Amino acid sequence: MKKTTFSIDIKATKEKVWYSLWDDENYENWTSAFSEGCYAVSDWNEGSKIYFMGPNGGGMNSKITIKKPFDVMSFIHNGELKNFKELPITEETKAWSGSEERYDLTEKDGITTVKTTMDVVEKFADYFNDAFPKALQKLKEIAESDTKSITVRNSTKESLEKVWDYFTKPEHIVNWCFASDDWHCPKAESDLKVGGTFSTTMASKDGAMSFDFDGTYTEVVPMKKYVYVIADGRKVTVKFDVLDGTVIVTENFEPENANPHDMQRGGWQTILDNFKKYVEQI
Questions:
Q1: Which of 41, 239, 242, 266 could join 51 via S-S bond, C-beta 3.0 to 4.6 A?
Q2: pLDDT tens figures, 8-29
């Protein structure tokens, strides 16, 4: 294998570039330069397994070996996937099994440089030399434009059935759907079907403030995914993936303009963290 390096300068902070790399819709956008419909399944924690997938169920079985947020992400590619399942190592895959793909981010004077270092088998060198610069150009366009969506996720070893029920049923939603200990969720209603609506009330415990979070479901795939549109027109996608005995819950949402994106990301992540605590305690 030959170690190959690609790099690009992006007029954005390291934080913006990091999320442009790894938030769900952003990742699917820039990796479309390799193949339309690419996506990844993982809890995105250091040491965790990650599947790099195509829409036909093929791809690579890999591991996240280094994750230093806003600085470094590195993967080791171990083998192939077919029909969403890992394949045994063959003589052909031995040629690249154990190869590394690493992303280093450095920022200076408002410019972030993304350097990608890859172990590439000679037979694929021409392909990556053509496709990777195109992918990085897509990344640059994403990072230098307004944020279109934000991703938060969490994972648990509880069963998929339990996770789905506790995430979608009102009697459970009221126990975890709030972003701080001085707030609570006094009421939740949901008709989980295409065209069905939901309403979740979030309120401060002292009674000083409250608001209703309302929307309409536009897509529902039981135990796998649902999509809804908030009353203000923003889209939210919730996915439930199972990998290596772990259920991964991923929410991808369009941000609003009234509050900083970091605040919105933090609030949605805190609610998802509350869900993890609740589902694992009951």
A1: 41
A2: 999 999 999 999 999 999 999 9
| CATH code, 2-143 | 3.30.530.20
Residue 282: per-residue pLDDT: 73
pLDDT, position 84: 87
One-letter-per-residue 3-state SS of 74-121: EEEEEEEEECCEECCCCHHHHCCCCEEEEEEEEEECCEEEEEEEEEEC
Residue 97's Cβ-count burial label (10 Å; 0-12, 13-18, 19+) is middle
> CA geometry: angle at 43 spanning 197 and 163, to 5°?
40
The CATH architecture of the domain made up of 150-281 is 2-Layer Sandwich (3.30)
Reported as a single tens digit per residue, the pLDDT across 207-244 is: 999 999 999 999 999 999 999 999 999 999 999 999 99
Location of structure tokens 């790399």 = 21
pLDDT band at 92 (very low <50, low <70, confident <90, very high): confident
Is 64 within 8 Å of 47 (Cβ atoms)? yes
- The domain limits of the chain are 2-143, 150-281
* Residues whose CB falls within 8 Å of the CB of residue 19, separated by 6 or more in sequence, listed in order: 26, 147, 150, 151
